[in-house]
Amino acid sequence: MPGELDLFNSFPYPLNSEIIGDLTAGRRRPEWLWLALRGDRVIARAAWWSRPGDAHPLVMDILDVADGHVDDAIQLVRAALPDPAPEFTRFLPPQWRRSDDDRWMAVLEACGAKPFVERLRLQWEPGTPIPAPTGRLTFRPPREGELIDLMTLVVEGSLDAHTRDELTRMTPRECAEEQFHGELLKYPSPQEWWRVAELPGGEPVGFVIPGHNGYNPIIAYIGIVPAHRGRGHIDDLLAEGTRVLAAQDVPRIRAATDVGNVPMAAAFARAGYRTFERQVDMIW
Prior knowledge:
About 30% of the residues lie in helices and about 30% in strands. With about 280 residues, it is of the alpha+beta class.
């Protein structure tokens, strides 16, 4: 497959530039990259991604279809789709709205997928002002075992669609442990960046996880415990997380939140994060 990357990348897409690095790092495998051809022409392609070392793909993140070849793409997806089928995700322009030209979605729906959630992909850029500390909260690294306890509180009442879905199958504690061990601990960035926020009396109100996902510096997770929501603490937490990453002289900071999570989207906007893409997730 490495010798056919130019052929695979004949469809334009933001992830094209990452594929060779993903193959080298073990985030993709040649058998997870599929093409449909008629003669020498690529008429459809599909690809899957995982974290390094995973035995099975975690997400399907590439599907492109040439005009007039929806049926061929359906055959490709049905032939290549793992069982169980992982979630699909696609990055789109910030003003995207579904239209009849979205062949990739028509193909997935014909294969049994359905829309799950739409997300905002956000970016902070150097030079964007970071609000000064208000003094209402103090910040420190989490103590051992503390973060899972706080995450257990935060997931209850969450507006995040993935978290709400997980809570239909597991307890809040199990959900927190899965997110902690399955995601946060796998980031290559140091845990010294993580912050717990507390009131002057020492009571924790929430946390923020600045990190690096192997591609970009990110705000990986941010949460306020239910007893302290609605008091503006999210702005202090987001500013602190941004401050931690900006101190590393990063070229950008990325984040994401569900379109339906209006309070979180508003907090990112107040902090100077702009929507540079949308993301559509689909499930089987």
